[in-house]
Specification:
There is one protein chain. By secondary structure, the protein is mostly helical. Helices cover 24% and strands 0% of the residues. The protein is built from one helix and no strands. The longest helix has 15 residues. The two termini are 25 Å apart. The mean pLDDT is 79.
């Protein structure tokens, strides 16, 4: 991703496999149990055992 430039007229799907685009920063105070649970959820998503909706039905973003 960092080697390509985004073009405004293209729709791109960005998923967890692209760590440059999708990552979660956790504070050092986050308990290990929470970190472990997040890792399990990520693994479930990556192995397609856990499905997440990628559709957004809420109000539109205003710029």
């Amino acid at each position: 991703m960092t080697q390509r430039k985004f073009q405004t007229h293209l729709r791109q799907h960005i998923d967890l496999e692209n760590a440059d685009a999708v990552r979660l920063a956790l504070a050092s105070a986050v308990p290990k149990a929470v970190i472990d649970q997040i890792k399990q959820l990520r693994s479930g998503i990556e192995t397609h055992k856990l499905k997440l909706s990628t559709e957004y039905g809420g109000s539109k973003f205003v710029v």
